[in-house]
């Protein structure tokens, strides 16, 4: 989730359980602690472009790391912010813990994947009930937290936290409706599905991307779940077969290892890019929800040596035509 959403959610919970005289500092501690797990984005390597994919939403986002992460936040923030305002270290740690604890659970509501139970498993939990950026989710929380801060009213913060819980719950209902529509589409095509997922498109829970897998292909469609359900049939792409798609690739090379790392990150939804045969794409994400054009990919090189890593690329299609097509689906 974006940093603003993480911060105001953390602030709403810490303010909800604070005393009236502490509501301002509790909000600040919850805000900063709520954003802090994303400092793991600093774990990067110039030589290994996929390293950040392995560490982002890993140990700092584990439920088992909450006591440690919040304690570090308290050690840093208590002398800087809370001590001079009369809070004990224990109170600072409590507010930091409340803020920190919201982060991983909110991230798990997106479709990116969060390692909630690391180090016991590296499974990436993704409930896909809210988009990574969604102003309809964030703005009410932000407004209520600001009002709670200036008016010193904890009930406003509690209302903000209530909205923060209700919206993903609505998203869960919407997701299940999109999944049902996806199964219906696959059945009409007489496809035998191995697995199927629905993910909210950018900044809303009205238009969804449905991806399902058959024995040899991935199919992507868009589903709008409003008062009625409308489907926008989309594209398909062959599943990645390394031996077929990259016959020149040495299976012991670093590039071959990187493909499997990218496959793990992508939950298996990988394919050769139809527009560039040297790329492997994550089929799950695209700006236009019924298209295969991925938001990120890895690029291989036939001339690379055995120890060379793949390149990692992001793709942003912000053309007027793409925006028009997206909003045409969103607003029907």
Automatic annotation (TrEMBL):
The keyword Manganese does not apply. The chain crosses the membrane at residues 63-81, 93-113, 125-148, 155-173. The keyword Membrane applies. It comes from the Bacteria. Keywords: Membrane, Transmembrane, Transmembrane helix. InterPro entries: Transcription_regulator, YdjM-like. It holds the Pfam family YdjM. Coiled coil: none annotated. This is Inner membrane protein. It comes from Vibrio thalassae.
């Amino acid at each position: 989730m974006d940093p603003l959403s993480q911060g105001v959610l953390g602030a709403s919970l810490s303010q909800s359980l604070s005393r009236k005289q502490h509501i301002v500092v509790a909000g600040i501690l919850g805000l900063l602690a709520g954003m802090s797990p994303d400092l793991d984005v600093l774990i990067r390597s110039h030589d290994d472009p996929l390293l950040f994919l392995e560490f982002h939403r890993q140990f700092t986002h584990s439920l088992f790391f909450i006591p440690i992460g919040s304690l570090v936040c308290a050690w840093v923030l208590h002398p800087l912010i809370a001590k001079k305002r009369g809070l004990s270290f224990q109170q600072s740690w409590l507010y930091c813990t409340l803020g920190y604890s919201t982060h991983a659970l909110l991230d798990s509501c997106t479709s990116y994947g969060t390692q909630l139970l690391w180090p016991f498993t590296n499974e990436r939990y993704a409930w896909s009930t809210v988009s990574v950026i969604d102003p309809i989710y964030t703005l009410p929380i932000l407004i209520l937290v600001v009002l709670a801060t200036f008016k010193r009213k904890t009930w406003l913060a509690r209302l903000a936290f209530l909205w923060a819980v209700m919206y993903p719950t609505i998203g869960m209902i919407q997701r299940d409706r999109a999944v049902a529509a996806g199964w219906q589409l696959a059945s009409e095509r007489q496809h035998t599905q191995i697995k199927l997922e629905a993910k909210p498109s950018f900044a809303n829970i009205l238009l969804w991307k449905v991806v399902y897998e058959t024995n040899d292909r991935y199919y992507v469609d868009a589903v709008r779940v409003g008062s009625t359900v409308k489907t926008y049939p989309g594209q398909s792409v062959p599943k990645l077969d390394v031996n077929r798609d990259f016959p020149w690739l040495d299976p012991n090379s670093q590039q071959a290892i990187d493909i499997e790392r990218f496959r793990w990150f992508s939950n298996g939804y990988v394919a050769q890019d139809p527009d560039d045969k040297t790329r492997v794409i994550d089929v799950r994400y695209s700006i236009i929800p019924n298209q295969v054009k991925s938001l990120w990919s890895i690029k291989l090189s036939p001339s690379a040596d055995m120890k060379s890593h793949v390149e990692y690329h992001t793709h942003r299609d912000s053309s007027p035509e793409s925006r028009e097509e997206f909003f045409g689906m969103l607003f029907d």
